[in-house]
Write a structure and sequence with these properties.
Distance between the termini: 36 Å
CATH architecture: Up-down Bundle
CATH class: Mainly Alpha
Radius of gyration: 17 Å
Number of strands: 0
Strand content: under 5%
Number of domains: 1
Structural class: mainly alpha
Number of helices: 7
Shape: elongated
Length: 192
């Protein structure tokens, strides 16, 4: 079942807060490699957020779909996958990777809707895959193992072109909220 957009942001915030405050990271706070990893991936996350914002502007300009509150009734008819983030041991990393996986697949529906912007979508998907890989390598390096599922959610299907447009709007809006929360979590870890 899909979680309402506001509910997802609240759920994500609570889970990341628990992950950040529930387990000490003092053993890593002074590790220069870990700090370098965080700084690089903060920049990477910022770039991805900018690319998502660019796609949001395209959807707004192309389809005049710009305001979420005007589309909430239509959203109820859509089955859009959202990142339901789970807390991972002592880190938010597994939750971030799981969210990246959800949105990576969903971007294919946006590429189908906006074929003229396929290059931007492909760059975004590549950046997301690289960020996920960076996180996986860091977790393996710190813990020696990583447990994650690589199953991809099925692509959403839409009953009409308008639903496809609105669905794409919400995929991008949900992804942007996810990225903002992930960015805050990484920034918090960098400040420890």
């Amino acid at each position: 079942a899909a979680v309402p957009a506001g509910g997802l942001a609240l759920l994500l915030g609570v889970l990341l807060w628990r992950a950040l405050h529930g387990a000490p990271l003092t053993e890593l706070s002074g590790d220069q490699d870990f700090q370098l990893f965080l700084q690089r991936n903060l920049e990477f996350t910022r770039k991805i957020r900018g690319d998502v914002a660019a796609l949001q502007r395209v959807v707004c300009d192309t389809f005049q779909l710009c305001k979420e509150d005007e589309l909430l009734l239509v959203r109820q008819d859509l089955d859009i996958a959202q990142a339901l983030l789970e807390q991972c041991h002592r880190r938010t990393f597994q939750a971030i990777r799981a969210g990246l996986r959800v949105y990576h697949g969903s971007l294919a529906t946006i590429q189908a809707l906006l074929p003229g912007h396929a290059g931007l979508v492909e760059t975004l998907q590549l950046d997301m895959a690289n960020l996920s890989s960076n996180i996986q390598q860091q977790v393996r390096g710190q813990r020696g193992d990583f447990v994650g599922t690589e199953n991809q959610d099925p692509l959403p299907t839409f009953s009409s072109r308008f639903h496809h447009q609105v669905g794409s709007f919400f995929i991008l809006a949900n992804f942007q909220r996810f990225l903002e929360t992930a960015y805050r979590a990484l920034r918090h870890l960098a400040s420890l």
